[in-house]
Amino acid sequence: MKLEVSHTILNIKDSDVIINFYSEIMGFKLSDKGLIGGSGPEIIFMSQDEDEHHQIGFSVQRENLENSTQLNHISFRVRTFDEVKEVKRRLEDKGLEYLPLCHGNALSLYFDDPEGNTLEIFFDTPWHVIQPQTEIWDPNMTENQALAWVEKTFKDKPDFSKKEDSKREFVNRT
Q1: Residue 30 belongs to what domain range?
Q2: What's the pLDDT band for 166 if we cut at 50, 70, 90?
Q3: In angstroms, rounded to a whole number, what is the distance separating the alpha carbons of residues 124 and 150?
């Protein structure tokens, strides 16, 4: 059995702010919204994929923003390095902060949505390296510069290899 991430539902407080953020910064489109059970809290569905009703959803039932969520972060893979750069530009255009982290196997940007839920946008590198690994990277680099930096930075880490040559196995941590 191979499981794929389907969707995430977050409890939120302000639907308008959240819809605007996920549309303008993340590129999602509103696919549906309504009241749960016809009279319960509002639920909002958004997607970037026409074949997926929703990839992310929001239930408007968070009472305040002082209470942290149980969520660590939601991670979104993009297919091209340019897409990471586009999200970086959108965040900067809105004056929003982000943390550029590289894990050796991915170049990522971490940032919060308006209600403090942490998001990750990442582009896969062609390498495998034992995790966890974190190094801050310069998101102003070109793709070629960034990949050369990744290889130089991580080449001496345990099990660094091209993904297709990797003998990675799942680790039983019990």
Answers
A1: 7-61
A2: low
A3: 11
- 19-22 long-range CB contacts below 8 Å, 24 or more apart? 19/44, 19/46, 21/113, 21/114, 22/46, 22/56, 22/113
Peptide bond into 126 cis (omega under 30): no
In Å, what is the CA distance from 157 to each residue of 106, 133, 161? 15, 9, 9
Q: Residue 159 is encoded by which pair of tokens?
A: 């099990």
Instruction: Dump pLDDT digits (tens) for 40-87.
Output: 889 999 999 888 889 999 988 877 777 667 677 899 999 999 999 999
Q: What's the CA gap between 26 and 113, in Å, rounded?
A: 10
Q: Kindly state the DSSP code that residue 40 receives in the 8-state scheme.
A: S
C-alpha–C-alpha distance, residues 26 and 67, integer Å: 24
> How many domains does the chain divide into?
2
Examine the domain organization and report whether 39 and 95 are in the same domain: no
